[in-house]
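In the design runs reported in the main text, the only information available to the sequence generator was the tokenized backbone. The following block is the verbatim input for one such run; it is reproduced so that readers can re-run the procedure and compare outputs position by position.
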């Protein structure tokens, strides 16, 4: 990951303009702009010790320039931008403690 340019090679390919936040020794990378210019709705984790990427949940909304934070076991994707909806005023959250194939981002109340 290159923090100066906000670009990195992820499990889903190169991306830019993503949000990221460290939680429990992992770096979670949220959304961004894909190699072909479209916004992403992905969440991935990166382990800086093993240098492994893991694909996790998908957000319901594609987001670039997204704000990301974590609190009480949840990662929050806040706002951002996409070509269809422009400036986003929504929040989605993901539990870092729950796992499974059906686990996904949920709209925040």
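Verbatim output:
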């Amino acid at each position: 990951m290159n923090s100066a340019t906000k670009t990195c090679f992820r499990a889903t390919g190169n991306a830019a303009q993503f949000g990221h936040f460290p939680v429990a020794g992992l770096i979670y990378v949220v959304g961004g702009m894909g190699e072909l210019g479209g916004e992403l709705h992905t969440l991935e984790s990166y382990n800086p010790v093993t240098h492994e990427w893991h694909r996790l949940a998908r957000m319901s909304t594609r987001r670039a320039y997204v704000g990301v934070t974590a609190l009480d076991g949840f990662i929050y994707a806040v706002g951002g931008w996409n070509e269809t909806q422009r400036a986003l005023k929504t929040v989605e959250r993901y539990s870092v403690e729950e796992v499974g194939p059906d686990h996904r981002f949920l709209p925040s109340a």
